[in-house]
Structures are given as C-alpha cells and as structure tokens.
Specification:
Elements: H1 9-29, E1 35-45, E2 49-50, E3 53-54, E4 56-59, E5 69-77, H2 86-94, E6 99-102, H3 103-106, H4 113-138, E7 147-150, H5 161-172, E8 186-189, E9 192-193, E10 199-200, H6 205-214, E11 219-223, H7 227-232, E12 239-243, H8 246-258
Parallel strand pairs: 5-8, 8-11, 11-12
Antiparallel strand pairs: 1-5, 1-6, 2-3, 4-7, 9-10
Length: about 270
C-alpha cells in the first residue's frame, strides 16, 4: 500500500521543507548583485575655488572679474567592490534621490579600484585639454600665447568639459559686451565637450539636477539627448536649457542674460 501523509503529519512536512527554502531566499536577498547605487554628488563653481585653489587659472591674457556661478555637477556611486544586495536595489529603485545602475555602466574600465581611478584621471585630463582648446578656438585666441590651468580635486571623468569651457570664456570675454555669461545667476550643468565644441551626453542627469538645485542653481544646462532623463525628477524652480554645441550654449546664456531672443527648453 502506498504511504500517505496523514492530515496531522502534512503541516510538519511543509514546515520542514519551508525552512531551507526560507534560508535560501534570505541568502539570495542579501547576496551581492552586479549593480551600483548612485546619488547626487558634490558641485563646484568653476569660476571660483575648490579646496582653496582656483579651478581656472589663466596666464598670458587679461581676465575679467566675474559674478554668478557656473557649477559643474557630479554623482557618487557605490564602489566596484561594494556589496549591493537586493534590499539596496529595491530601496534605490523607489527613491527619487537614488539610481540603480549596472556596475559595468558605472565602471566600464574594470573592477580594479586603482585602474578605475587612473582611467577617470586620464579622461578628466583629456576633457580639460578639449575644454581649453574649444574655448580658445571659440574666442579666436592663440593657444601658444595663453596658458590655461584647470584644477578640480577628487573629481574624475569627462562630464565637466562643457562647464570648464564656459568658465574659460567667461573669465576671458564674458558675453562679449562686458557682461557675464551667468547674468549673476547660479547656473549648473553637465556635458562632455570635444575640441570642436560639440557637447556630448554623460548620464546621471536626473541626480545631477538634484545636486544643482541643492546648491542654489536656478538654471541647468543639459545635453539635448538627455532632456527626458533630466525632466524625470526635475526639482521645482530649476530651468532646463538643452545644449548641443558650445556656440548654441553661449547664445542661449546671452539670450537669457539680456532677456532678448529665444531660449530653448526641454
């Protein structure tokens, strides 16, 4: 006769089976996952100082006294070797001040912390060189006569390129008629730039708008391709201006400052 569980023994059997399943689920819930959790990072006024040193130093040409601020923005993410578990991912998924990203997208250069740091420093240096060349080309100034030094501690990557470029232009010529590119405002933004003045996308813009608003910005310059992301968690009172090239960015800022002409919006 086949063996049958009695009605009294069945709950005990279920309980015995449930115990290892619960343990397995608990283990899975706290197992490391291939994600990073990012949040709004620091911002820095490229027209001012960072940790006691001027961000932009120019020699070989007269510079202007500027007003207002041009703030580059950052995000901070859990490290490549950080333990990110399912509860961390779920928490980040439902918070507007957090973003869950594939770890490979945040750290494409690998898992070695030293290699990542070296990669970020190299891309920052390349970004600074491109920013200087783009600014001097835009102003039709000879790079052999003017030396620009850019210094920003503890920040890596290329996403400050656009703001560096605008800062150099503001310090050398402003809006071209004696005014500031900022119009006295706190303007923040993000975007890569190449030597020809083309602005590129960077990622993390929804978090960067929050960092900008937190630090007093009322205007945010965003690569046009990332308008939708920037709008998704846009803080109240922060105006988005989409940008594609250095020339159009300067034109938008001048139009905003003078109150003439059209200023694009996302």
């Amino acid at each position: 006769m086949p063996y049958r569980l009695s009605s009294l023994s069945r709950p005990k059997a279920v309980a015995v089976c449930a115990a290892p399943v619960a343990a397995l689920l608990a283990t899975a819930a706290f197992a490391p996952l291939p994600f990073s959790v990012a949040q709004p990072g620091m911002t820095a006024n490229v027209l001012g100082e960072n940790k006691g040193d001027p961000v932009i130093t120019i020699s070989g040409a007269a510079t202007r006294r500027t007003s207002g601020e041009l703030r580059m923005t950052t995000i901070v993410a859990t490290g490549p070797d950080a333990h990110v578990s399912l509860p961390d991912v779920v928490d980040g998924w439902f918070r507007t001040d957090r973003a869950v990203m594939p770890r490979d997208a945040v750290y494409p250069s690998g898992d070695n912390v030293k290699e990542i740091q070296e990669h970020n420093e190299a891309t920052m240096k390349a970004s600074q060189d491109a920013a200087t060349q783009a600014a001097l080309t835009y102003l039709d100034k000879d790079a052999d006569d003017i030396k620009v030094t850019l210094k920003l501690s503890d920040v890596g990557g290329p996403s400050a390129g656009l703001l560096f470029t605008l800062g150099i232009i503001d310090k050398l010529e402003g809006d071209g008629s004696g005014g500031d590119l900022t119009g006295g405002r706190v303007i923040a933004g993000t975007g890569t730039i190449d030597a020809a003045g083309k602005v590129g996308a960077v990622g993390g813009v929804a978090l960067k708008t929050q960092a900008a608003h937190r630090d007093g910005a009322t205007v945010f310059l965003v690569p046009k391709a990332e308008c939708a992301d920037a709008r998704s968690e846009l803080p109240k009172g922060l105006r988005l201006i989409p940008v594609t090239t250095l020339k159009s960015t300067v034109e938008s800022l001048v139009a905003l400052e003078k109150g003439t002409g059209s200023v694009p919006s996302c």
